[in-house]
Backbone:
């Protein structure tokens, strides 16, 4: 089975809620909301990752910044009719310009 993937930034800000008293509870609530939103669109949660990114710092400097991301996947939707169509073969090689002369 083939999958398509979506990677989004993990939430960094929390929303206030009556049932969430501590910052940890508020963060968990924000994360739950994001997971449920993606799930409603057909995405399955795979994992969270911390990935490096080299970014500019000042005029000539560079620094490494780490980003927290959430990885999702869903089955790759291929139209069943397209699966039945024959796949095109490789195009024939172009004739050599020197061999085409009479």
Residues:
């Amino acid at each position: 089975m083939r999958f398509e993937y979506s990677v989004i930034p993990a939430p960094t800000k929390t929303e206030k809620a009556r049932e969430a008293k501590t910052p940890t509870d508020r963060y968990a609530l924000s994360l739950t909301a994001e997971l449920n939103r993606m799930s409603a669109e057909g995405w399955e949660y795979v994992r969270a990752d911390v990935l490096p990114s080299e970014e500019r710092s000042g005029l000539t400097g560079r620094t490494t910044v780490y980003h927290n991301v959430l990885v999702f996947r869903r089955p790759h939707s291929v139209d069943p009719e397209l699966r039945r169509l024959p796949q095109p073969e490789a195009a024939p090689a172009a004739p050599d310009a020197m061999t085409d002369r009479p």
In short: The mean pLDDT is 83. The CA atoms of residues 8 and 70 lie 5 Å apart.
